[in-house]
Amino acid sequence: MQGESLLPIDIQTNKLLDWLISRRHCNKDWQEKALVVREKINAAIQDMPEVEEITNLLAGTYIHYFHCQRIVEILKDTEAS
């Protein structure tokens, strides 16, 4: 049983999107919607104040939910003071 748990999972990525769409986990136009979100993120980045921690968070390749959450907290603190 121990050996079976170490076997890698083979996921056919070309069928993964079809599977996600058929089970309504995402829409067919998710890529278009993702581009709109990326454009909004880029526009928001241009309008941000110069805070070193924000710059460090944005220096990474990918911005994920927790980065955005931290940026919002920083912006709330800077606007309050």
UniProtKB/TrEMBL annotation:
<dbReference type="Pfam" id="PF05600">
    <property type="entry name" value="CDK5RAP3"/>
</dbReference>
<dbReference type="InterPro" id="IPR008491">
    <property type="entry name" value="CDK5RAP3"/>
</dbReference>
<dbReference type="GO" id="GO:0007346">
    <property type="term" value="P:regulation of mitotic cell cycle"/>
</dbReference>
<dbReference type="GO" id="GO:0012505">
    <property type="term" value="C:endomembrane system"/>
</dbReference>
<comment type="similarity">
    <text>Belongs to the CDK5RAP3 family.</text>
</comment>
<protein>
    <submittedName>
        <fullName>Putative cdk5 activator-binding protein</fullName>
    </submittedName>
</protein>
